[in-house]
Amino acid sequence: VIDIRKLYAQTGVFTYDPGFTSTASCESKITYIDGDEGVLLHRGYPINQLAEQSSFMEVCYLLLNGELPKQDELASFTRTISRHTMLHEQLTTFLRGFRRDAHPMAIMCGIVGALSAFYHDSTDITDVQQRMIASHRLIAKMPTIAAMAYKYSVGQPILYPDNSLSYSANFLRMTFGVPAEPYEVDPAVERAMDRIFILHADHEQNASTSTVRLAGSSGANPFACIAAGIACLWGPAHGGANEAALNMLREIGTPDRIPHYIERAKDKNDPFRLMGFGHRVYKNYDPRATVMQKTVREVFSALKVTDPVFEVALQLEEMALNDPYFIEKKLFPNVDFYSGVILSAIGFPTSMFTALFALARTVGWIAQWNEMITDPDQKIGRPRQLYTGPTQRDYVPIDRR
Ligand code: ACO
Which Pfam families would you find in this protein's record (predicted)? Predict the structure, then answer.
């Protein structure tokens, strides 16, 4: 029996809010979401404007520093990031320890966590300059790590970064290029990649960001904190949903099979959910999904390809949005619904989708981590619990149980 009165007496207030549905864990100036209106702002700027008019490097600068960069500031920031793209050569030895069929997220978790063993200087979280260097290192090295994970899985040699290319073009080349052969990055694909990174850059206190903050609240180093965020992002209810959404669309296969899946999603005895649908905060269209849907068309047209799953996705969306169950529960497509269709058209296997999300979200995680470290009200994160186990009882020796 829980003695709630005792808890009240001890703490004054006690709230029980599983999943933090209505409890703020921190103050933040980075990202604002109005879930009812479908609004997402980074440092005040609407996500659709950033996705359409800025670059990922600009958004990284904005999230980290609070303001859009001037021309010279952007040039200097981009140069700094380029300088940090290489990995310590010994990390490739570490990579070779993984099985070839290791999931890229397993590799990302391991290698990012291991960065703390290679860059000791950046683990001093009391030094503002070192915190910024750690942030730059993480943003710069994530594409190299993600591409390495991919190359390892397909048995191709790893390509070193080419710092004359943009952040997105460099990542595409490291992923799809092969040594001794020129690799031309299609500008439309480069732009789409950049936009996908922008759309995933930050999303306030989602599960993985909260994990990064919680890990960081104990004073853990930034590489360890980001590794914790990657682990959390991996789950199918969070970052893993883009992989699950495309698998679901492929399983549906043709529009005539959609009604069956909609019925399954509504059936409370069936654990199936429409992947890429629904959101804790958005009770309206996720603004990122709107940009993502538009980007699918641009990529298809640039690459002169099409994919029947896109038609399935469009029709599934239309049917769900007209279904009383989805209307009543305010379930709309989220960022993951269309991203898989684009990533697949570019050539990424589904196992890389969540790794790309982790790459892009790193800037959000590290910006939030920096904000937390400098918050004078910051305490170690230590949620309370509502104990529902047995009350005190006496130990029973094993021969009398
Ligand atoms: N399909 C069918 N029903 C759904 C779905 C869905 N995708 N999402 C929510 N519901 C229903 C639930 O069954 C529940 O119904 P009930 O009231 O009858 O019990 C109701 O809507 C509320 O759902 P909860 O799970 O309580 O909502 P919560 O805010 O906890 O979950 C979540 C949000 C995890 C995103 C959920 O909508 C989901 O599982 N979606 C599919 C996975 C997905 O796309 N995740 C990506 C999220 S975005 C991101 O992380 C980048």
Answer: Citrate_synt (PF00285)
Q: How many residues does the chain have?
A: 401
Please list every protein residue whose CB sits less than 6 Å from any atom of ligand 1.
19, 237-239, 241, 265, 273-280, 329, 331, 334-336
Distance separating alpha carbons of residues 83 and 71, to the nearest angstrom: 19
- Sequence-ordered alpha helix ranges (H) in 186-271: 187-200, 207-216, 222-233, 241-252, 258-266
Q: Considering 194, 202, 307, 336, which one is annotated as catalytic?
A: 336
3-state DSSP assignment of residue 272? coil
Its pTM stands at 0.92
> Which among 84, 136, 203, 279 is annotated as catalytic?
279
Interatomic CA distance for residues 165 and 239, integer angstroms: 27
| Count of Cβ atoms closer than 10 Å to residue 137 Cβ | 24
- Average pLDDT rounded to a whole number, residues 162-190: 93
Tokens of 382: 């230590």
pLDDT digits (tens, 9 = 90+) for 189-236: 999 999 999 999 999 999 999 999 999 999 999 999 999 999 999 998
| Higher-confidence position of 15 and 356 | 356
Nearest to 346 by CA among 239, 182, 192, 200: 192
121 is catalytic: no
* 31 sits in which H/E element: strand 31-34
Name the nearest CA neighbour of 228 among 245, 208, 206, 198.
208
